[in-house]
């Protein structure tokens, strides 16, 4: 499903043309990385995607009720604590105080906020303030999530947690777009990479995200449990393990395989996203 589309979009600041004739479609489940040199217009594209900026020419169509945006610079609300700020943002998004509090604490815990959720935000370090900005964007699961250099300032643990959170958000059906300068982070996170160069957008790489299912025969079905995984139409690779079998499928087609497994008496040990090389 298409979540947002830029069609022949141009953007000028005064007489300077920053973007020229940009076409970009973003579908549910995609993780798009926008790359390019400093000043090439990446943040401008992100602001157009969420509607914070209007195109000078062309059109933007959006099909998302909940849109979340993490800017590259987070203006923290000085006197509020992280917990109070997130409760407030949750209520603005229509969540109950209880839900907003629970979800905030869960996200801050996953991102390992240090310094305390009740500390005034002006006392938080840059990385911890960034964690609050990320939690804000994920409070109410978005259909469109747009992040401007979201890894900036994060420590190693939060770095991988953010990758997991973005992948989960895409798996839940959101379209995710981000900018990032590290090739390694882009490679390990994005399903598609587009580069901006002199105002033009080009697709660099399209990846198919893969899911690995680790299955074990349950109960009485100890010998193969009636499914020939090698012949399953969606399965790309099968490996036998001591406990059962590991199968690799394109993400998005693994639900049907999971159902087949469960219907034939297999137990699901793990479901894991795998990034292709
Ligand atoms: N409000 C504005 N008014 C005038 N020029 C602007 C404005 N916003 C951005 N620009 C210019 O547009 C160009 C693209 O900026 P943008 O922030 O989109 O680049 P970027 O690719 O995100 O850069 P970086 O990698 O440094 O974050 C830059 O030359 C910038 O100076």
UniProtKB/TrEMBL annotation:
Signal peptide (UniProt feature, chain positions): none
PROSITE patterns: ABC_TRANSPORTER_1 (PS00211), ABC_TRANSPORTER_2 (PS50893)
GO molecular function annotation: ATP binding; ATP hydrolysis activity
Keyword terms, alphabetized: ATP-binding, Nucleotide-binding, Transport
Pfam families assigned to the protein according to its UniProt record, in alphabetical order: ABC_tran
Annotated ranges, domain ABC transporter: 4-223
CDD domains found in the cross-reference section: ABC_DR_subfamily_A (cd03230)
Protein name in the entry: ATP-binding cassette domain-containing protein
């Amino acid at each position: 499903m298409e979540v947002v589309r830029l069609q022949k979009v141009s953007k000028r600041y005064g007489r300077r043309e920053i973007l020229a004739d940009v076409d970009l479609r973003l579908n549910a489940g995609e993780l798009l990385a926008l790359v390019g040199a400093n000043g090439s217009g990446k943040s401008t594209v992100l602001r157009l995607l969420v509607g914070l900026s209007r195109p000078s020419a062309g059109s933007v169509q959006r099909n998302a009720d909940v849109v979340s945006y993490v800017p590259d610079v987070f203006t923290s609300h000085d006197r509020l604590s992280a917990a109070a700020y997130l409760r407030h943002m949750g209520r603005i998004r229509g969540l109950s105080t209880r839900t907003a509090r629970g979800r905030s604490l869960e996200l801050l815990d996953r991102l390992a906020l240090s310094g305390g959720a009740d500390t005034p935000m002006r006392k938080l370090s840059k990385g911890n303030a960034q964690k609050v900005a990320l939690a804000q964007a994920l409070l109410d699961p978005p259909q469109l999530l747009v992040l401007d250099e979201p890894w900036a300032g994060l420590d190693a643990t939060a770095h991988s947690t953010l990758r997991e959170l973005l992948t989960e958000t895409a798996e839940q059906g959101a379209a995710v777009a981000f900018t990032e300068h590290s090739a390694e982070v882009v490679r390990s996170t994005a399903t598609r990479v587009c580069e901006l160069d002199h105002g033009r957008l080009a697709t660099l790489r399209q990846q198919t995200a893969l899911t690995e299912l680790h299955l074990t025969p349950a109960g009485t079905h100890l010998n193969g449990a009636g499914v020939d995984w090698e012949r399953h139409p969606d399965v790309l690779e099968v490996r036998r393990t001591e406990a059962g079998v590991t199968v690799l499928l394109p993400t998005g087609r693994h639900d049907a395989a999971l159902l087949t497994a469960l219907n034939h008496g297999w137990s699901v040990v793990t479901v894991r996203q795998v990034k292709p090389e």
